[in-house]
Amino acid sequence: MCLGRPALARAREFLLVAAYILLPALVLACCYTNKHGHMMVYATMTTRFFVFLLLGVCSAGHLLMAADGPPVWAYGTSPEAAAGAPPKGAPDTSIKHLADSQGAFTKAQIGDRFAPADWYPGDHPVMPEIISHGRKPEVWACGLCHYPNGKGRPENAGVAGYSAPYFIEQMRKFREGERSSADKRKNNTNVMIAIAKAMTDDEIKAAADYYAAMKWTPWIKVVETKTAPKTYTNVGMYLPLEGNEKEAIGERIIETPVDAEETEGLRNPRSGFIAYAPIGSVKKGEALVTGNHGKSVACGVCHGSDLKGLGPVPGLAGRSPSYLVRQMYDMQQGTRHGNWTELMKPAVNGLSSEDLLNIAAYLASRTP
User: Fold this and answer.
1) Which of 162, 178, 193, 247 lies at a CB distance of 3.0 to 4.6 Å from 173, suitable for a disulfide?
2) Phi, psi (rounded to 5 degrees) for 336
């Protein structure tokens, strides 16, 4: 028999809650105070049996969490979703244009790793060389994946508005092997690690200062729904299939471009995303984020009451839900480390996959 994800989640939560409630109660029941006023523990063979049994239940709960596996929807690594991509046609060599842009580029120029198209130079400060061109052969231009305006896409990260110290720290973690993906199929994380290792300290600082100077602004619209567009994945990003067919949303958030061609084909840095989320997920996430659910500390304690960041601690409001879930799951699984991560672990370790989804839906829905 194979349990589905909802059944696994329910079993895991039942085991963990039962164990964490009953174990302390059992220990207290075995305590007494001796004539000197010292607390003592008396444990019969039966008591010891139940203590070890409950410890085993705790372990089983965490094993179920591991057996549940990574939330594939957040990593975009489903082989089935990738296999659903429509067949590629002949290379398109025509010149492309975007509204309100004087740019004119072919698709090859748009996706050039060392000189990607900059459609709207007036939308951002003058780019350092590392952003606009990178450094051959190992360091891709940051603007290719994260865009010149730092908005990024669901399969990577929006980096605009992160403080320079936080940005530099994360690059250092990539370099030192302390930040990787819990889903080893997510190849662009490995690309990021290789780029970070090849960058100089001065290049990292230039990129950090550049993106830190820009504010994070609305980029994602959260839509609660029972159904979402049928999609396929291309390098980790969900794109709608032709025909406007729908499918049940299930326990997922499906983040797709507002305009697939402008995002995937033309890399338009002004064209944002829609995040389709299960009905009720935003409200459930609010209870978790504000600490009114009893599972975790309120996020605003460290990330600011408005969730827009506090000092070097990054903002969460309006960020990609796929990215947020990946980071929380990576922390749970121990593939993301660091001083700030150690502070985060107690906050995320007791959260289920459904909790992570709900938290991300709420955070993404907030105005940055």
Assistant:
1) 178
2) -125, 125
SS3 per residue for 324-338: HHHHHHHHHHCCECC
Spatial CA neighbour of 160 closest among 239, 77, 217:
217
- Residue identified by tokens 């085991």 is 15
Q: Which residue has the tokens 């289920």?
A: 352
Q: What is the mean pLDDT of each run of 10 residues along the chain (368 residues)?
A: 41 47 43 45 46 42 56 95 87 97 98 98 98 98 98 98 97 97 97 98 98 98 98 95 95 98 97 98 97 88 96 96 98 93 92 97 98
The pTM (predicted TM-score) of the whole model is: 0.83
Of 269, 285, 267, nearest in space to 325 by CA: 285
- The confidence score (pLDDT) of residue 84 equals 86
* Type of residue at 31: C
Could you identify the residue written with the tokens 């198209």?
A: 117
Closest CA relative to residue 278, chosen from 350, 161, 360: 360
Q: Which residue type does 314 have?
A: P
The Cα–Cα gap between 105 and 254 comes to: 30
What pLDDT score does 44 carry?
A: 53
- How far is residue 364's CA from residue 263's CA, in Å, rounded to a whole number? 19
Q: Contact at 8 Å (CB) between 227 and 247?
A: yes
- DSSP assignment string, 155-205: TS---TT--HHHHHHHHHHHHTT-B--SSTT-HHHHHHHHHHHHS-HHHHH
- Give residue 223's pLDDT: 98
Q: Are 103 and 119 in contact (CB under 8 A)?
A: yes
Q: Please name each of the domains of the chain with its CATH number.
A: 5-68 (no CATH), 107-212 (1.10.760.10), 217-365 (1.10.760.10)
CB of 181 within 8 A of CB of 323?
A: no
Query: Using CA atoms, how far apart are residues 213 and 126, in angstroms rounded to an integer?
Result: 11
pLDDT (0 to 100) of residue 59: 41
Is the Cβ–Cβ distance between 216 and 148 less than 8 Å? no
Percent helix, strand, coil in the chain (nearest 5)?
A: 45, 10, 45
The residue assigned the tokens 């995040």 is 275
